[in-house]
Known about the structure:
Largest sheet: 6 strands, parallel
Shape: globular
Structural class: alpha/beta
Bound molecules: flavin-adenine dinucleotide, flavin mononucleotide, iron/sulfur cluster
Strand order of the largest sheet: 6-9-10-11-12-15
Helix content: 25-40%
Distance between the termini: 39 Å
Number of strands: 35
Amino acid sequence: MSALFQPIxxxxxxxxxxxxxxxxxxxxxIPRRNFYWPREDERFATTVFGQxxxxxxxxxxGPHTQMAQNIVAAWLCGARYIELKTxxxxxxxxxxxxxxxxxxxxxxxxxxxxxxxxxxxxxxxxAWVLIHALHRKLGFPGDSPDVVFNLSVGYDLDGIxxxxxxxxxxxxQDAGSHVDGLVEYLARHYADAHxxxxxxxxxxxxxxxxxxxxPPGEIESISTYLMQERGLHTLVKCNPTxxxxxxxxxxxxxxxxxxxxxxxDAAFGHDLKYEDAVPMLTNLRAVAESCGLEFGVKLSNxxxxxxxxxxxxxxxxxxYLSGRPLHAITVNLAxxxxxxxxxxxxxxxxxxxxxxxxxxxxxxxxxxxxSCSDLLKTGGYLRMLQYVECLDDAxxxxxxxxxxxxxEASPQTLDDYARCVVQDPQYKKSTFDxxxxxxxxxxxxxxxxxxxxxxxxxxxxxxxxxxxxxxxGNDAKAVEIVREDNPLPCVLGRVCDHLCEQTCxxxxxxxxxxxxxxxxxxxxxxxxxxARSTEGAGxxxxxxxxxxxxxxxxxxxxxxxxxxxxxxxxxxxxxxxxGVVPEYRLPWNIFEKDLQPLEALGVVFHYGxxxxxxxxxxxxxxxxxxxxLVLVGAQRSKMLGLDNEDxxxxxxxxxxxxxxxxxxxxxxxxxxxxxxxxxxxxDCARVAKRLSKGDVTLVYRRTVDQMPADRxxxxxxxxxxxxxxxxxxxxxIRVDDGELRALVCRHMEYRGDRDSSGRKVPHEVxxxxxEIPLDTLILAISQGPVLDFLDGEPIELNEQxxxxxxxxxFETSLSGVYAGGDVANAGPASIVKAAxxxxxxxxxxxxxxxxxxxxxxxxxxxxxxxxRSRRQWRTPSPELSLDRRTGFDEVVQTFDDNLVRAExxxxxxxxxxxxxxxxxxxxxxxxxxxxxxxxxxxxQRYQVAVIADLCNECGNCTTFCPTSGRPYRxxxxxxxxxxGVESIDTxxxxxxxxxxxxxxxxxxxx
Length: 1006
Ligand SMILES: Cc1cc2nc3c(=O)[nH]c(=O)nc-3n(C[C@H](O)[C@H](O)[C@H](O)COP(=O)(O)OP(=O)(O)OC[C@H]3O[C@@H](n4cnc5c(N)ncnc54)[C@H](O)[C@@H]3O)c2cc1C
Ligand SMILES: Cc1cc2nc3c(=O)[nH]c(=O)nc-3n(C[C@H](O)[C@H](O)[C@H](O)COP(=O)(O)O)c2cc1C
Ligand code: SF4
Ligand code: SF4
Ligand code: SF4
């Protein structure tokens, strides 16, 4: 735990709330417009333990219920059932940090309050008092805030009988002295404080949080104690292992595909078993009845798994899984218990709940639905608002008026839902990819707002700007914005490797914005002719290679008035893009739309002219070219190094694809094998399927989830019926009479070890090799450069044989000679990287400086915060139906007018505002503050700072910050616990005033 982590004084807390409400019309950064406004008609109300609550939702016991401000924030966003963070006698825990990893499914290594027992009580009472005060102050309907606090205690009876826990249990039953003391402080900031009617009993119900490994006898004794001696309605929080190893692992690994998650046998060994649980629950129900209390279960706790990721301290051997896979497991457990007890067991649900599934859970009979992982993702507490919205819709759709009627009316049983949930893509591992959401950008103290999609785009396309233009229906503006930075918009609108989408902040909400598909729509619109300037007049440039790199450089230079000649060995332009990438991904007529502007600008193309054969660099110099650009790509297919690779029937990928593109019919037989797992391999397999109409098998030594190819390409490959033989290593090529017969393969397996990048290492399995009979084998391993035309030129090459070029200017060791794209530095990459290299060379030749312009936007922060918390699935691009994918017609189609605007609406305008870290901090330790850019010397109006006292270094903000940084460490750290600080609001005001004195850095918005 951070040594600084501590609650702030009650007086400061109250001052913060009421001053912020008065001056900024918000509380803890949540604008009043985004508060959940309780419904007078009590549409969502329900009853728990005999008390009414305004909604059935709330934060699960965890980081959102640790401190007063957390609980109040949850309540302001619609939570009405608050599961307080577990309190236990050992109250000086040293939790290793970071302790939360919510990149996708959740993991954590913390397990109860980090505050001392007396501090916990104080925090809960403060929250209680504040909620009652705000209910009145905000003018919410009704006399009561309609909220229930559910206590959580652990972990053994001995501990619960210790003096500190006994004191805690006594005080929550009568917290009068605490409440009265706090009201005195409250009165300094809220005039009506003394008139409030705040109940002194904080809670009459409790959840027993059972430690992983708690024996049934102990659970029964504690529960009996809580009911008989403490008079508390009691829930027992069960572990998901109750479902049993076979079913649990079946769901986790086979049905959902979380094959990397290892649940140790020990977890099932030491946890409560189903056969022990049923009699125990039956006994405890009887105890409750005899005490006139309610008894039930809370499903579920987190799942104990091995710590195999690289986030937590490796000394932590175990971590605890939550979120989407836990949902499917726990729903199945709930369904099993529901049948066991004939629908009569009281159940409360917390496992991967979200806005979409909570109506199903309520229809299935859950008394309340609480969340932890979902609220730790971008949007934070505000995500709760959509739970209510979705329930509202579900009630409407059922044609009834209230939650109670909805529960009655719903035809769906828990059993039905349990069967559906394991099929639902929302819960399958492969559906989302959140592993690459952080960019390389350094995080600075100030001015950190920059869209990660732009950071990740090699040509810095102004994505949010063109999204805004499309949203506003201003297509002409969108065309201008895209074409300003993009020399090949039609090509890149279709086949860019779109790494921008991996970092789109929507990945953590639902799915990335379809950045490439929106660009495609824009690129297909009519465009004005490219303007020509005289900036580069008099400069004569020779470009070798008419691939995307060469075309991009040619366009920039010709538009600047240079004389540009391109020398291309083939008979047409485009390099890999024009000659190899299949037509069903990029039709030639589309490619030509990017070529025509170059011709219009006067670029001279010499087709069929190969450097080395038809001319040398020296010839070009003699012909008066001032600059020579080497953009020749990587034209040699690499081989496996097995015998018989030169036999008939074995072909390299580039030759195969080039021929297929030129001829469109080749006899390759009926049994085709492809070796590889990148985009080239996907193209080869899909082209082979179209040509042969036979069986195409792709052989890969790892598993599909590890393939480096674009996910959309993999999906298309599988949809089109191509078989992938995973964990299979080619050993030999069997040839009879010079003819290919089969590929001999060896089985591979994962054994749990990983390489330095965290990737699973496949190992050979000893035993029999096996054969795949083949008519054609296509080798799609990778490519290398062909640079014989540079013989005799003193140009530096790296160890891999690529040309060494400056990463900014792309000039080589030979003055005036530039190299980029697939032929330089790290070798083969992508179209957009080649285009970026071409642009950068042109800029260097023209002596251009990069210009950065600050953005000037009006931001509706409340609206943006709300939009940033709402989930909304991506608009699917129209696609050719499977039965029509027999030839080379384009598979993916362009969005129409309506679809494109719907998709552009999903963009969250990351050029205007960020504060993602603020939204995911459960403790509200990160806060957004405003500065006046004109007066402060900073570029951006919205900045963030850390209230260090409230930060327990959980690490959650690091996961969601799109930069490479750690906001809780890298942002200005403020300390409340010092003389003269009245409230957080005044502290933030002070940093706004002093910011210019601190080192200002960072990148302005573009
Ligand atoms: C099958 C396949 C599919 C791909 N799919 C994608 C994709 O979907 N998205 C993506 O971003 N990237 C994709 N790539 C990668 C991408 O095509 C390349 O990274 C990109 O084309 C590199 O551009 P370049 O200009 O450096 O080289 P190239 O595109 O290779 O162009 C080089 C040009 O130089 C010419 N040339 C070579 N030597 C000479 C010489 N001696 N004299 C004259 N001319 C010469 C070549 O004929 C060629 O026209 C794919 C690659 C392959 C092989
Ligand atoms: C960081 C973290 C801390 C948690 N702390 C507690 C706790 O103190 N007591 C408890 O009973 N459950 C705790 N839980 C479990 C949650 O209450 C919840 O049951 C579980 O995370 C499943 O819900 P979810 O999938 O919505 O996260 C914690 C979970 C997380 C992720
Ligand atoms: S939401 Fe929009 S601006 Fe933000 S990363 Fe995604 S596409 Fe870019
Ligand atoms: S600032 Fe970051 S590390 Fe600190 S509590 Fe908040 S999310 Fe956790
Ligand atoms: S998440 Fe926070 S620290 Fe990171 S860029 Fe956004 S505002 Fe800055």
